[in-house]
Amino acid sequence: SLLFQGPNRMNALKEYARRFTPFLLGRILRTDPKTIRKTIIVDSEQVAAQLKSVIAKLNDSFRYPVLLDGETRKSMAEIRHEMRSLLFEELGFELRREKSSVCEGEGVFLSRGATSSHTLFCLYPGTLYGLGDPILIQSLGNSFILKCRDGQMIDGNDRRISRSIFKSCAYRDFGHRVCDLTWLERDPVTGSAVDPANFLNMGQYVNDARDVKGNVQYIDVDIIDWPLSLRRWLPYATYRPREGGIAGVHDGIPLRIVALVSTREIHEGEELLADYLSC
Fold it and tell me: Per its UniProt record, what InterPro entries does this chain match (predicted)?
């Protein structure tokens, strides 16, 4: 029956299948291990330290609640511009979401600047699901679920039920005082997603490298004992409350995040591409 639903439906199904875990397992079983692309070795603690340094600069420069409370002296456009400028000064590059060069959807591009290998580029945001947490309903037709090496999953979809679940879990844990919600922003006229003020928080739109070599790779990082003033800049909410406090803040409770790190030099105008199947 899919044949009668048009090419857009078929393309959407193909994109969903490319990230569907059984499909990836099938690719592994059919692939010669010698041909699986090798990834670079990155110290996750160094990635966490780099991220913490960048977020500390943001936190020192902005009163975070003004982004969400609606009682701002500046417009959201002004805040967005200032935040992007600060991130560019700190990182040496800027990211934007544009029409992808490898598929019909959108992708993430380095719109300004350049960077070297082993550099933190962005985060894969979303709701964190531990082992045994229910995720079947959310996964239907959802190509934004990323599985970590230890079995934890992140749902980075900013629409439909995934969006509602993230906001529900976030406000259960005191909302914007605990995590970033701006990655869920949508255009009030078109309803389409807009680039977040913090462009680090849009790694879910990085596409599969497919037949070319990727220029970024996923790195699992555990955040532990960060001050709440920095934790609230991270775009993560846990599906199940953590016993003893807030993940990433209290009593050594780790918060799993996924960072995308460059595997080579990346220059202005290039699209970020990751290998969904790598080792």
Answer: SETD9
